[in-house]
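Can anyone check this?
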Amino acid sequence: MQRLSFHEEIRKNKINSIFLITIVLVVLLALIYTIGFALGGDYLFFIIIFGTIFSLIYVVGGYYKSADLAIASVGAKKATSSEYRQYNDIVEGLCLASGLPKPKLYIMDNPQINAFASGRDPQHAVICVTTGALQKLTKQELEGVLAHELSHIANYDIRFMTLTAVLVGMIAIISQIFLRSLFWNSMMGGRNSRGNNNAIFMIIGIALAILAPIIVALVQLAISRKREYAADSSAVKFIRTPTGLIGALKKIQDNKPMKVSGAVAPLFLAKPTKEREWFMTHPPLPKRIARLERM
């Protein structure tokens, strides 16, 4: 079996992520263009203004407070050096090796094995692990998990996913405004002042408004899965061996799914589930393990 190069895997996943986010941009532009022809310039102007303002306020607030919100949502507490020496020592060693500033460390009281990273950049990052991870993982396995989370920070994955969320949110908002404006226009007995020549664009616009949020949501999930693969590869780059991370993922695979808020679920290291891959925020654990075993 051909061995995988972690450098090549990181490069391929970054290219795939850029390609997927380009699809989201294309869908957004197609939606705006079609609605503009269907409803006219004035309607398009108001849709863009209101959609943009609402999206920016919502996402910018979440972007700057992402780490605090994530930590608060899981009820985590700070992991002091005196109480959690091994946890702190491993992260400090990985940060020295990778050149990253040490993130703030937290502990989440949960018997399952899991972890997540958040923050808009390496200078404002946090890592949180469950008590189950500290109790059930060996030092090498914990090192693999923490290297994965540091990889998300080093790769600016939170910033990238926030940008994706902005685009996806704008598409959803514009679609809803368009569909609701059509509904209220029909209720008031209004007619398109530009005549029936735009009937085709109106039909296309309605179809896009319905399908676009679904399409871009699936693309967003695909981007999330690609970033997980990239973080796995980067973790191998940091510690020069996939053994620890493989062991941790195998233990997670044997666990029951961890119940967390849907808003923070994509941040976690892994999410054991029986859903179809297209609807998952994370790649299936057997696939991740198989890829790591080939490195």
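Reply from J.R.: I decoded it. The radius of gyration is 22 Å.
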